[in-house]
Every structure is written in structure tokens, then in C-alpha cells.
Give the backbone structure.
Amino acid sequence: MPEKPLKICLVSAELSPLAKTGGLADVSAALATFLGNQGHDIRVLIPFYSAIDAAALDITPVQFLQNRSIQIGNHQLSYSIDTTTLPGKSLNVYLLRCPELYDRPGIYTDGSDEHLRFILLSRVAIEMCQHMGFAPDIFHCHDWHTALVPLYLQTHYAWDQLFEQTKTVLTIHNIGYQGIFSAGVLHDMGMQDLAEKLHREDLALGRINFLKTGLLYADLLTTVSPTYAREILGPAYGMGLQDLLQQRQDSLVGILNGVDIDEWNPEQDPLIPFPYSARRISGKKKNKLALMKELELDSSDDMPLLGMVSRLTEQKGIELIQKVVPTLLQHRRFALAVLGSGEPRYERFFNRLQQRHRDRVCFYRGFNNKLAHQIEAGSDMFVMPSRFEPCGLNQMYSLRYGTVPIVRRTGGLADSVQLFEPGSGTGTGIVFNDFSASALDWALNAALDLYQDKKSWRKLVQNGMARDYSWERQGQIYVDLFRQILLTGNRT
Ligand code: ADP
Ligand code: GLC
């Protein structure tokens, strides 16, 4: 007998392509789409940021969810919920409209009411289910922004029998962002009379940590790769949460992210000029030449092209690039295409590098999805020297696009890329261990040497393109876990 479809409420701060700063958006959208396509009843809620291009969407107000009011601390807020279909998908999405909180230039802010923006999202996710009479089997929360849902279900909404059977899952995409606020937000959280529910030592120190609160109360914790699930149990990667994670180790599972193969498919990618596949790989070279022309890079004599698409933050190991690439450019022939934005010191570095090597370095500062696809398609190799990387998506996009990933062996990079061994012809990329300039230097030189060995390079590219990291596989792991916790209350 087929199993009963699950009822899932997925709540997230980002959803691709509507609101995206990084991989959280890709994962929320692709996982929700997978679950919907599998026949599960999935209700997705995200904020209606003013950055969402409403004119490009077909938006319908949900009649019974207009001009609702909610008391958050001293703030009497009014919100409405609209609905739309995710572009290019069949997924229905709910948009939480509250201009007072979400009409800001970006998705995240450093405003003094940042906590309020995500308390509202978390509470409205629960209240939306109440108004719909929707009893979710699973509340699936993502990162600190929605990590308060489990606590609210056990406090403010504990009276509601609708949620009697509901289990909560919190997925950690990045433990580097925890949502730490001064204890002054206690009132806005509505927890002033329930302070004993919060982490006592943090409170004594005058702060409240949203992610930590989620770790205390969610039924199941997941993170986005098996290696990262192990790494965050220790002080080097746990960012202060390792002790708590160790206590909850039995409820913590690492599931590697998948790739949205409709969006990232070199055979049918409307954002690249020349579609190609593993069997018809010649199109890749055409994409490379078109990209290099567009970026005004020297493409003579089969110049190898190294790509990079990244948030420019400490996490991504840009300091290793700073230490290695300027010298390497003097000694070796290759070109570099970088797309990203972030910390000014890194942006300045890439700007200077571009000025110094105008024919071999191009830095595009900003966020540009089309160019991201073109860099994946046009580059020969792609570098991710991350200090830590919960999963990382670009290395998996690279594999699909026949672009050899050069990665540090950490988190999801370690789980998705294997070092190529020319002797046996096995492996999918270049992998280095230490977070050091010499290790990255070795890796880049190894890749450039291997590029000259055309037979090995072809094999390496084909190995990568044969890998299957689709959501068809990875999404099923979530479904199995959801079913397990519903049956047994825990994952074993
Ligand atoms: P993270 O979530 O830590 O930023 P991931 O590798 O998981 O890292 O995901 C990053 C996602 O954001 C990828 O889809 C990548 O293509 C995209 N991305 C990052 N920076 C840019 C940019 N400047 N322009 C377009 N896409 C970007
Ligand atoms: C985070 C991580 C990244 C991961 C993404 C999606 O932003 O930094 O490694 O791939 O979330 O899970």
C-alpha cells in the first residue's frame, strides 16, 4: 500500500529565485519542489520582501489571511498572506506581507528590529496553519531565522491540539550565523514570563541565541552534509554550539544537499549560449570562448580559465586566494573570472588584481544569476578554498557542468568531490587538506598541470559529469527521516 503523503510546513528566510543571498534559497526551493512533486502537501512561507520582483509574479491574496493583526511584544503588527507559484515550478508559495518589517533594501538588515522580522515569520507560520486548519506532520525550519518555531509550539501554541502530532525539524545551513540578540528582545519574543525556557547562561550574560534555542527544542536536527555534522561537534567548527550539539548528537543527521537539475543542467540551460552534455562536450568550449570574449579575457593558446562565484566572506577562504593567486599569475598561464560581493577588503583585492592583469582577470562585483551560470559553463576549473563549508553547491554545479572543482577537504566539499588519481583514472576534482596558502598553491598548480594532460583531463571531466547529486536522491533521505520521527518520536 502506498504510504500516506506527508503534511509539511516549510518556513525559510530565502527561496530561490524570489529571495536569495546564497545556497539557503536554492535548497529551500528545490527541496520544497521535490516534496511537492512527490505528492506531499507542502506549504511554504517566506517574507514578502520589497526586493521580490512582484511585477514578474502572478500574486493572489489569500482572502481569509488579509489584514490580520498580531501582538509581538509591544508591537501591534498587521500582516497579510498572498500566494504565488514559484517561477518555473509548480510549487505554490505563501508570501508574508508586512511592509513595516520587510520593505527594506535587502533581505537581511543590521537594524535594531532584525529579531522582530523573524519572530513574525516564525509565529505567522504557526498561525497560518491554524487559520488554514492545516495540521502539519512536520514543521521544517531553516537556520536561525525560523529556529524559534519549535519553542513557540511548546509554549504559546501548546494549547492547540492541531499540533498535537506535529514534529519539528531544524536544518542548520550555516552555524556561523546564529541570530544572537541582547536579552532585551525577551519581551518581543513574548517570553518574559517563560525565561526559564531559554538558555540560562546566555540569559545571565545578557543575550539570547535564536539558533541555540532551536537546537534545544527541535525534535530533529539536520545539517547539510555528513562531514559538517561531525565537524560541528568539535570546537574548531562548532562556533560555541559544540557542547549542546554533542548532547543532541543522537538527533543530529547530516544530509548532503542536492542539485536542482532543472535549473542547473548544461543540456537545457537558457542562461548559457551553447547547450552541451557529457556526450556532446564540444559546446563547453564555445561557452568558454563566448564568456572570455564577453569578459575581455585573453583566450589565446587554450588559456585555462579558473572560475569563482562566491559570497566574499571569511568563510570562503578568500585570504588564501589573496596569498596565492597574485604570485601564481606571474608564473603560470591562466585566466580568472570572479563573480561575487561581500567584505570591502576582498572586493578591493579583486579590483586591484583585475587592474594589474586586465587581460587575465575579470572581477564582476555584484549578484548575477546569469553570469553565475555562464561562469559554471565556461570555466575549465572552479575554486572553493573554504575555511568551512556546510555543504556548498557550486562544486556540485561545477561537476554537472564539466568544470573541475578545486576544493578544500571540509564539510560538503569533502563529501562531494574526490581527489583525481591519474593512475587509476578515479576521482572528480582536486582536493587539498590544510587551510594554508601552500596547500592551495599545490592544488592550483596540480590542476593547471593536469589541464595540459588532455587525456586525463577528459576523464576527470567525464567522471564529474557522471555524478548524481540530484534531489531525487537527497530529498528521499529527508522523507525517510520525517517518517521515522513521526513513527518513533526520534530517528532510530
Ligand atoms: P553559500 O550559501 O554559503 O553562499 P553555496 O555554495 O551553498 O554557498 O551557495 C551559493 C549559491 O549562491 C549558489 O547558487 C551560487 O551560484 C550563488 N551565488 C553566490 N554568489 C553569487 C553572485 N555574486 N551572483 C550570483 N549567484 C551567486
Ligand atoms: C549555507 C552554507 C553552504 C550551504 C548552503 C545551503 O549558506 O554556507 O555551504 O551549501 O547554506 O545549505
Remarks:
- The pocket of adenosine-5'-diphosphate (ligand 1) is lined by residues 22-24, 26, 309-311, 339-341, 367-369, 372, 391-394 (CB under 6 Å).
- The first strand starts at residue 7 and ends at 11.
- The domain at 282-469 is CATH 3.40.50.2000 (Rossmann fold).
